[in-house]
Amino acid sequence: MATEQRIIRIATRESQLAMWQANYIADRLRETTSLFDVALVPVSTIGDRDRTEPLREMGGQGVFTREVQRVVLENHADIAVHSLKDLPTGPIPGLSLAGIPERAPRFDAMILPEDSQVRTFDDLPAGSRIGTGSPRRQSQLLSSRRDLELLEIRGNLDTRLKKLDTGEYDAIILAEAGLRRLGLEQRISFLLTPPLMLPAVGQAALGIECREDDQEVIELLHQISHAQTKIEVTAERACMFTLQAGCHAPVGVLCQQDQEGLKLDAVALSPDGKARFDVSVTGDPASPAELGAEVAKQLIEQGASKYL
């Protein structure tokens, strides 16, 4: 009698981007092994249901992840696929962050109306209305340009682009990775790169969780993980965890390997961008968590905790 094939159930939010990410992971799993079948389990989160209230005012961390994690913990699914930047840095009892595939391009993108003549950040007229609900983005932009008007914006990518194109904003900021994943890269006017803008912790990376006692799935997720991405995000997440700051904190990071070792740049700011704390440390790639903790310690010593 043939053994019934196990189905790996993937819990995911229902947004267009989340479904793309879940299907991407499903395809990676199918490429890795034929021993399992794969099925998606769509989950509605509070962050998806409430598309008007600013995210930082919606009960702290995990507004896009808590309910997806619960589905896995209650054995209604086997893995949860997250945008890693949305995933709180503290451990969740019963879950293992076992899969971290190669990250996509990690910078933020400025999107302008299609008939705009603006070509660079410095070309934006004074008083330009910029749509972004991210304190990290808002504070870094205000640190460079206090003459800009930073406005909240919610909704999926299509909704945000429609708000831009109907004149509600003069420009909006979106993650480069999400635009590219959905085939919308033609809407990118220019990228916001360091030192002007440091990305979020885990930006452009995916994080895949499973139950900590499901060794079969843990081993499968290890096979689709990317070693360098895991090193980078481990340093980034250790920095944020040591700061005791949430994923909506005004903190930006950039972790990259160079000839001298693993380099982690970090910035923390006051919400209005007037106070700014910068740290850059190079450490051992074999100890990324220690590097992240050291960077956080230096930010704290400078006084950044006051704004986190």
Describe the structure.
The chain is globular. The strands form three sheets. A five-stranded mixed beta sheet has the order 2-1-3-10-4, sandwiched between helices. The chain has a five-stranded mixed beta sheet with strand order 7-6-8-5-9, with helices on both faces. It has 308 residues and is an alpha/beta fold. It has helices at 16-32, 46-49, 66-73, 135-144, 157-165, 176-181, 215-223, 227-243, 288-302, and strands at residues 6-13, 36-43, 79-83, 95-99, 108-111, 129-131, 149-151, 171-175, 190-192, 206-211, 251-258, 261-269, 276-283. Strand 12 and strand 13 (276-283) form a beta hairpin. It folds into three domains: 1-103 and 205-225, Periplasmic binding protein-like II (D-Maltodextrin-Binding Protein, domain 2), CATH 3.40.190.10; 108-192, Periplasmic binding protein-like II (D-Maltodextrin-Binding Protein, domain 2); 226-302, Porphobilinogen deaminase, C-terminal domain (Double Stranded RNA Binding Domain).
Q: Provide the number of structural domains.
A: 3
Q: Rg, please?
A: 20 Å
According to CATH, what is the class of the largest domain? Alpha Beta
The total count of helices amounts to: 9
CATH H level, superfamily name of the largest domain: Periplasmic binding protein-like II
Amino-to-carboxy terminus distance: 59 Å
The appropriate CATH architecture of the largest domain is 3-Layer(aba) Sandwich
In spatial order, strands of the major sheet run 2-1-3-10-4
Query: Whole-number average pLDDT?
Result: 92
Strand content: 15-25%
Report the sheet with the most strands, covering strand number, pairing sense and barrel closure: 5 strands, mixed
Number of strands: 13
Roughly how much helix do the residues carry, as a percent range?
25-40%
Q: Find the CATH topology of the largest domain.
A: D-Maltodextrin-Binding Protein, domain 2
Q: Which word captures the global form?
A: globular
By secondary-structure content and strand pairing, the structural class works out as: alpha/beta
Topology as a string of helices (H) and strands (E) = EHEHHEEEEHEHEHEEHHEEEH
Catalytic activity: 4 porphobilinogen + H2O = hydroxymethylbilane + 4 NH4(+)
Protein name: Porphobilinogen deaminase
GO cellular component, one term: cytoplasm
Cofactor: dipyrromethane
